[in-house]
Structure formats: structure tokens, C-alpha cells
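hey can u check if this looks right to u? its 470 residues, i copy pasted from the old doc so theres a chance i mangled smth
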Amino acid sequence: MVSTTSQINKFIEFVAVLGDLIILNLVLFFLLFFWEEVFVSLPFSCRVSWMMTLLSLCYLACSGSRGRVWDSRGIRPDQLVLRVLKNIIAFSIFWACIMTFSGISIYSPLFFVAYFSFLFVILSIYRIIIRHFLIIYCTKGKHRRYAVFIGGGNNMQVLYEEMENSLASSLYEVVGYFDIKPNDGLSSQCSYLGDPDGFSDFMSAHPGIKHVFCSLSMEEGRYNFSIMNHCENHLLYFHGVPNVCKGFPRRIWHSMVGNMPILNLRYEPLSKMENRILKRIFDVVFSSLFLVTVFPFIYLIVGSIIKLTSPGPVFFKQMRTGLNGVDFVCYKFRSMKVNDEADSKQATADDPRKTRFGNFLRRSNIDELPQFINVLKGDMSLVGPRPHMLAHTETYARLIDKYMVRHFIKPGVTGWAQTHGFRGETRELSQMEGRVKADIWYMEHWTLLLDLYIIYKTVENVIIGEKNAY
């Protein structure tokens, strides 16, 4: 059931984003057609199709996780419009940056103002229309599935509440439940149908009920075989509900080892070999291009200034905690005077250890650029949890629950936490706790598009500046 509703949400999200791409290209085409001077003076030698492709890729990178149209029954039209607005703002900024730094001169500010304005209005209407048809579809209940519960424990109570408060409520209608005795903890709207001995007779009398959700305790397990056997012989879908609410007070995932189901604490996309290969290819290509083309010039300029303004090496090297808790040497441009507290003390806003040029390096994030060497070596990834110095890893591992979980993946040059304000000095423990939660969220929701979105947000933050960058 959970996988079914998840697949439906993903399908709706896919349809929404696909429609977005069609609309943004149609709006561009018609505006170019009627905006004759732009169409005629278009400097794209590779034609309008390349412009459409580039716009589509930019939009996908900026849309991030905001493609959802329906993730709960309570989502409002104004929330959908706000999501579209955030997409359009990010999209327009990203596109303006590309146009500025690439030297491409399709230029008419009024044209792009008109384009993004039309796009916002049409996409908002499109999302609201999708939502409207979803509500109509769900209200009719044309494809609703009828189900019964067997067992009335805590996990079945949680399952019933999930069905009532999510998209599953439009897919499943729970007729009632079987249990050894009535359970006062279950909603009064879920009728008690008797003990499990009457299951077969009841199901035979109600052929429209096709789904059975079963969760019986060990003492009641004698019913399981007969219930499963009845389902197999009467074209009924049997869903076993593990009794894990008390033992696992969070959402869990399962995998199979042969014929044995295994419960996992979290879903990790990067545990799949194909995803790790994809991320590594992206890291190698991106870091190689940067190190071969841009980095030599940056090194020449920054290295010279560091040498002229402060005695000491150009690079600052520090041991940090990496993948699976393995230590590695992390590279940075040196932004501080050589000191004995480098491996234990965080930088502060008015840190006397910083050099005059070091302030600029840290505020602009240029000091982090040598970490592309770490990316190419395989110690780090472009995107991931930021690596911490060894002393901090040891301290926070004792103070923060689940702190070490963030080390199941490679650390990154930038990360989800950093694009959401969790960067710089951590004065309060709650700041580090927020950073850890953001890192774990990224680990559980990784996609290549999410990495592209984080890179875009990082560039945006560098351009507009951050108060915590020091």
C-alpha cells in the first residue's frame, strides 16, 4: 500500500514536471514568433531547439523537489502557486546567470520579463487544474479498493490514520477489522467484524473486498497460514503489516536477502551501485574540467596574494572525517595565519587568526576550491555533508544522536545543509543538530537533479552573499 501511494505521488509529480517543460517551451516558441525582433536577431547558431533544450535543463535543475502537486489531502491552491513562484524565481535567476557569464546576447529585458510572467501565470493555472481533476477523481472513488484489517494493535492504528490522512484515503476504504476482541484504540469508524475465525465466511459473503492487511501477534499467529491460504485461493491481495511501531518509531524500509525480508532504518539511493557510479562520473567530469580550465588561473592569482600577504604555505591541509568514518587530508586555500588551534577551534566572525585576504577568501568560498582535488581523488564528492575536523567529529558524536549517520556517504564541497543556512560557526548545539538532520535528509533523498539544484543554490548564495560566510 505504501509503495502504491508512493508510486502514484511520483507519477503525478512526473506528469506535473513534464507538463511544465511542455508549457515553458510552448510559451517561448509563441513569444519568439510574435516578438519579431527577438526572433530575427536570435544569435543562437544552433537554432531555437538548443535554446529550448537549455531552458528545459535549467528548469529541471531549479525545480528540485518542488514538482509535487499532491502529497496530502490538505494541500491548498495558494501553496501550489507559491511552489510555482519559487520555481520561476530560481529559474529566472539561474537563466540570467547563464546568459551573463556565457556571453550569449539574446537581449531584450522586456522579452524575458514577459516570458517569465506568462510562464508563472500559465504554470499556476496548470497546477491548479491538475489538483482540481485529482480531487474530482478521488471524490468519485471510481477505482477505490475495499480492504479489511486483521489485528487491531498499535501498528494497525497507525496504518488506519495514514490511510485517512494521505492520498491512500482515496484508494482504500477500510470496511472493518478482525481481532480476538474489540480494540478501543482503533477509530470508531472502523467497525469490529469479529474474531479471525469468521474471516473466510465474511470474505466469501463480500466479494468486492479484495485487500487484506494482516498484523497478528505471535500468540495469534495460528491464524496467519489459514488467512494467507484463503487469500491465495480466492484472488485476494494479502499485505503483511510488520509489528514494528514500538521497536522502530520512524518510517522504515525493507529489502530482501534471498527469501528473507530485512528491515532497514532508511532508504539510501546511494546504496545502489548504479547511483554511486553515476554520481562518481559526474564528480570526475565536473572536477576534471574545473581543475584543468579554471583552477590554474585561480591558483596563480590566489596563491600569489597569499604568499605576499602572509608567511606560510598556499594550501592549508587538515585531517577530516570522511566516508565510513575514514580520515582523509582535506585541502583549502590558507585563510589564516599558521597557528596551533587550527585542528580544534572553529573560525569566528572576528577571528584574529584570519589574514586580511583570508576574510575575502572565506566570504567568497574561494578557500574551498582546492577541495576539487579531493573530489577527483575520490575522498569527497561535489555535493554531500561537509567534512568536519576530527576533534569535532569526536565531540559531536557523543552529543548528537545519529551524528555519525552522515558519514555513510562521501563528504561534499557543498551540501543541502549549507544551502539552507547551516554553515559557518556553530555557536549552539541546535545549529549542529539542524545540520545533521539536513545531511541525513539529503542522504535519503539523493538524485542527480538534487545535486544540480544544490550546486545552483550554492552559486546563487555566493553571488548574493551569506551572513554566515566568514
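Residues 38-45, 69-73 have pLDDT under 50 and may be disordered.
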